[in-house]
Structures are given as C-alpha cells and as structure tokens.
Amino acid sequence: MPHATHLLPLFIVIQLFWLATSSHGHGHGNTRDSSYCHPDQAAALLELKQSFIFDYSTTTLPSWQPGTDCCSWEGVRCDDGVSGGGGSVTVLDLGGRGLYSYRCHAALFNLTSLRYLDLSMNDFGGSHIPAVGFERLSKLTHLNLSYSGFYGQIPLPIGKLTNLVSLDLSSLHNIESDEITNIYSILDGYNFLVLREPSFEILLANLTNLRELYLDGVDISSSGEGWSSGLGIAVPHIQILSMVYCQLHGPIHTSLSSLRSLTVVNLKLNGGISGAVPEFFTDFLNLSVLQL
Ligand SMILES: *[C@@H]1O[C@H](CO)[C@@H](O)[C@H](O)[C@H]1NC(C)=O
Ligand SMILES: *[C@@H]1O[C@H](CO)[C@@H](O)[C@H](O)[C@H]1NC(C)=O
Ligand SMILES: *[C@@H]1O[C@H](CO)[C@@H](O)[C@H](O)[C@H]1NC(C)=O
Ligand SMILES: *[C@@H]1O[C@H](CO)[C@@H](O)[C@H](O)[C@H]1NC(C)=O
C-alpha cells in the first residue's frame, strides 16, 4: 500500500494544523471553542453514522466527518459547554431523511445530554426499539420515533423519561377514514408497535410532564377497558392526545374530566370504544378537535 504510507504523514500534518487553528486561530475571548463538540460525542455520532445504510436516503450526512466540529453537523446542535470539556449534543434531528438501519445503534445512548431526538420517517428495518438504553437519555423533553419501521413492544425505559413534554410513537399515517367503508380490513395488521408489557398505564405512570402524546396505530388492546381510567392522574397537563386505531375498548373514563388543558383528542378508528360521548368535554374551553 505505497499510497497509504505516503498519505499518513500528510494526514498527521493536517491534524496538527487543525489542532493549532482550533486552539489559537480565532482570536481572544471567542465563544466558538466553548461550543466545540466534545470528542466522546463526536465518536458516538460517527459510530451511529456507520450503522446507517444510505441507499434510499435523502442525505449521506456528508458534514459528519472526523476532526470537524460535530456541533455544526447536519441535524446536530449543542449546548454552550459551560461545564468545560466541549459542547454536549442536545439536539439530534434526523427526521424524514429515509435512513435505513438494521437496528437502533447503542452509540445513540452515549449522547446523554440530548433534549430533543427525532428519528422519525427513517427505516429501522422492523427491529425493536432497544429494550435498554433510553433510560440514559434522561434529559429528553422531545422524542419522535414515528414512522421509523420499529416493531413490537415499546420498552419500559421510555416510561422513565420523566422530562418528556412530547412523545410521538405513531406508526400510522393520518387516515381520512370517512370515504373508505372497509377501513378496518385495510388496516388489519397495521399495529406494528404494541403496549402489553409494560402496559399503556405503566408506560405513562411517571410521564407527568407530557403535553403531547401521539400513539396512532399502537396496539393497546391488552389494557382492555382500563386504558383511560388512569389518564387523569398520569398526564395532568396533556394538551394533545392522539390514539388513532389503538384497538381501544370500553367507555371513556370520567378520569379524563380533569384534563382541562386538552386541545386535541383524536380517538378515531377504535371500534371498541363504547358508551355515550362524555358531557364533560363541553367544559374544556380549549378543546378544538374531538374525533371519536
Ligand atoms: C459509550 O461511552 C463509553 C464510555 O463512556 C465507551 O466505553 C463506549 O465505547 C461508548 N459506546 C459507544 C457505542 O460509542
Ligand atoms: C414527528 O415526526 C413526524 C414526521 O416527521 C411529524 O409529522 C410529527 O409532527 C412529529 N411529531 C411531533 C410531536 O412533533
Ligand atoms: C415510576 O415511579 C415509581 C416511583 O418512583 C417507580 O416505582 C416505578 O418503577 C416508575 N415506573 C417506571 C415505568 O419507571
Ligand atoms: C387555554 O388556553 C389559554 C390560552 O392559550 C391558556 O392561557 C389557558 O391556560 C388554557 N386553559 C387551560 C385550562 O389549559
């Protein structure tokens, strides 16, 4: 490999040049160094990049290169790194890029400063959402794994993300069911994700800060008629509750009458919901969408 041996010294020179410019090259008192990507964070992101196959994607993440500031990479943002040692990644927004992967790589869970994570509209190949790892992302306020080709049980660690304000695990595009008469036969088999163990109630029990919850298409049938009985206590500040085609059963529990912040309630395509439309919905001053 004669080429490689000639290239190596050049590579080292470039690295040294980069080190020199990054520590001295931007004058005094600049803020850029403080938000410069922490090396551990860059390593985790690069490992994540390696787990993607770009055959059908809209990007190959060309800015994600070793030795460059990961805080300026596509879809990445950092805090200002006041604690020293470089900026930590707080935002990873890879939504809608058509990335393919066999599974969600564990390197993701080393980005422990993440507050906003969007992996929606990619394809994780029908793998499970990892059963271990999400508990490390305890600062998350926004998590969007919708339409990402995940399959099976939603794992317990997601229920430990007590700072979550917004959770979107939908696996079903919004369907206008009105014109379609045999909608249930079309949807048959479309419940890719399921809440059984943990159940819906257990997953939500500690997510008390939630404002937005989207679970369209998640199979929650195992909760039977109990799905709505704990909602009033579990998510007191909820504003958007979207649970289209979740195989829900039984009446809407009076526990919901305390959820006065609700603006959107979408429970379409749950043929098992029974009983009268609760009158307390008329007391919800901010309710603008109610679909049952
Ligand atoms: C995560 O970080 C630890 C050290 O904190 C390191 O040993 C490990 O290799 C990293 N894992 C990944 C997948 O990057
Ligand atoms: C999650 O991502 C999808 C697809 O990118 C988007 O339509 C949806 O609005 C997002 N959810 C939230 C709660 O922002
Ligand atoms: C919720 O919090 C309680 C009390 O701290 C704990 O026992 C329970 O395991 C938590 N549930 C989840 C899903 O983390
Ligand atoms: C209704 O919306 C207004 C304006 O956004 C807000 O100030 C108020 O707190 C909301 N009411 C409830 C019960 O959430």
Automatic annotation (TrEMBL):
Gene3D superfamilies: Ribonuclease Inhibitor. Residues 1-25 form the signal peptide. Residues 38-79 form the Leucine-rich repeat-containing N-terminal plant-type domain. It is found in: Membrane. GO terms for cellular component: membrane. It comes from the Eukaryota. SUPFAM superfamilies: L domain-like. It is a single-pass type I membrane protein. Keywords: Glycoprotein, Leucine-rich repeat, Membrane, Repeat, Signal, Transmembrane, Transmembrane helix. This is Leucine-rich repeat-containing N-terminal plant-type domain-containing protein.
